[in-house]
């Protein structure tokens, strides 16, 4: 009886973690620190009606404010980008970087992608044996991370914006087959020093690398994902949610789809 009680308690705790308030539980960039989104407690989800490309517009950036100390990076630096798993498995992370004055433009970010990686890069569930929501889909809030090479196209003193996008994640509201929509954050950064400026070197943007290998695929150049490997499929277009008081699920248009998990690469790779 004690064993059954403990099993039931563990399962209920896992459900509680995975169905927490959607405005507080979904993933977001940790480092470099994002602009933030006060309306949605820091998150920016396409299903919530936050359509990107950033969590808040250029006009909300703290760059230039006397109390704000932006991260400074160098051309050619391997910049480590981190985010917390936030109890959600699977999906892809796309990184893109543009001059800050272009940071309200989806077209600009789409033309300046610098890397794709797995969402669960260097992270996974707290208990790998917890299969309540499917193999490897249990809760856990470990730090996930990847690195990318800062392009040589930016001059000294340039303010640039790093876009972090998570898409194709799964187990929406403790539903193993259900996939999340897209989530966006942006961080404003200063470029200073490093390798010589080469404004015409756009090779990285033409062929951005993909680095696979996640908790489900530790020895394979793939990622576990839900719904679609194309981020465009889970933007919900121009549709907006119609929140109903007391109904948390009405706060978002999610799930994107109910495909269950798959393994693969981002579209185009």
Summarize the structure.
With 269 residues, the chain is an alpha+beta fold. It has helices spanning 2-18, 22-25, 106-110, 203-206; strands at 29-31, 72-75, 78-84, 92-99, 113-118, 143-149, 159-167, 170-172, 175-179, 183-194, 210-211, 223-225, 262-264. It has a six-stranded mixed β-sheet with strand order 2-10-7-4-5-11. A three-stranded antiparallel β-sheet has the order 1-3-6, with no helix packed on it. It has a two-stranded antiparallel ribbon with strand order 8-9.
Tell me the major beta sheet.
Answer: 6 strands, mixed
CATH architecture classification name = Distorted Sandwich
The chain-level structural class is: alpha+beta
The strand line-up of the biggest sheet is 2-10-7-4-5-11
Number of domains: 1
Name the overall outline. Answer: globular
Q: Describe it for me?
A:
By secondary structure, the protein is of the alpha+beta class. The chain has one domain: Coagulation Factor XIII, Chain A, domain 1, CATH 2.70.50. It has 4 helices and 13 strands. The protein has helices at 2-18, 22-25, 106-110, 203-206; strands at residues 29-31, 72-75, 78-84, 92-99, 113-118, 143-149, 159-167, 170-172, 175-179, 183-194, 210-211, 223-225, 262-264. The strands form 4 sheets. It has a 6-stranded mixed β-sheet. Strand 8 and strand 9 form a beta hairpin. The longest helix has 17 residues, at 2-18.
Which labels suit this protein?
269 residues; alpha+beta; Coagulation Factor XIII, Chain A, domain 1; six-stranded mixed beta sheet; three-stranded antiparallel beta sheet; 4 helices; 13 strands; disordered N terminus
